[in-house]
Amino acid sequence: MPIARALRTRLLNPLGLDHTWVECDQPAPEGVEFAHFWYDVNGDTNLEDISDQPKTFLCTALEGPIWTTAEDLARWSQALFYEGKVLNEKSLTEMLTFVDATGDPTEPMAAEYGLGVGKFNLKLASTGNTSRLATLNHYGHGGNGIGYNTMMIYLPEHHATVVALFNENATINTTVGPLLEVVDRNLGGHRISSFDNLEILFFVSAFLFQIVLIIHFALRKWRFDLAMGFGRLVYALSIPAVLVSVILLLGGKTWSLWLGGFLFLIWAIFGYAVEYEKEIQWRNPIRWSIFGPYVFLYLATIMFYWWPLGLFSKPLWGVYAVLFIVSTILNVTSHKNIKVTAHQLAAADPASYRHNRRDMPVRIR
Question: Model's pTM, two decimal places?
Fold first, then answer.
């Protein structure tokens, strides 16, 4: 029996892969459409559309070409790796027994070999944040032809397959890694064990900042005599925050992780100068020349601790959103009609007390 017929009768038809074509010397199945394919025919780095070439020419140019769709290829992967419809357990175990392929010049993306399957060095196939890709459990197979590139990767943690098809030969190495990272995160790949130390450092810094703000706003609402001293601590935290940002920057992390610390430092310098050095009363009544930049820097700092969490974990993002709402409510309500006596102001901030020694109610700044 010809190999193409055997594949059709024993594998493709039982699995319902109706848009997969292995008989490349025969007309394509009815309803199958082919993407245009591009190739650098002249070697001048310019891609030419060679779609007018008969598809059967690949039968002589390549060894056993297979035409398929992303959906069919994903079904094949699920049947093979997840559903166990292709191989028995023993054969699949042998197939997924991997050996190190580091340093093989013929496979620059291969990290480990199995039997007809491989694990990929996804750090080479990604830009920006690569740490999660380096530890993401995966295996699959790639393919290429004249004008086409294919990647099929199975993620056992999610029991899911990612298929990427390209109608040229240039972008697969820079696209597959980021694509897998997005899929992994959206399928729930946000366990603490899957994050590296720098990412965990960012998470701790972000939540510590928000928790300290909540404490500060709560004190300002109910214990003003303690709040003014604690406010200095809030601003002082910008120093370790910017050190964390430098560590993240030098560690190669994306800008969305390290920008928050630098914004925190700018906000802290501005706020400290206004509230503790110049002692300007700007909240009541509002002095817009101070209120505008102060609130802008504060919200920008919050956003660059909050927004990046969503890139890693939606639950973490949600928890941070709740904390932000709590801190905002406390922040707003702590400014309404708060009065203290000169004695309380002296206890909270002796420097401010020098400006008002009468034992009478005064409005805090």
Answer: 0.50
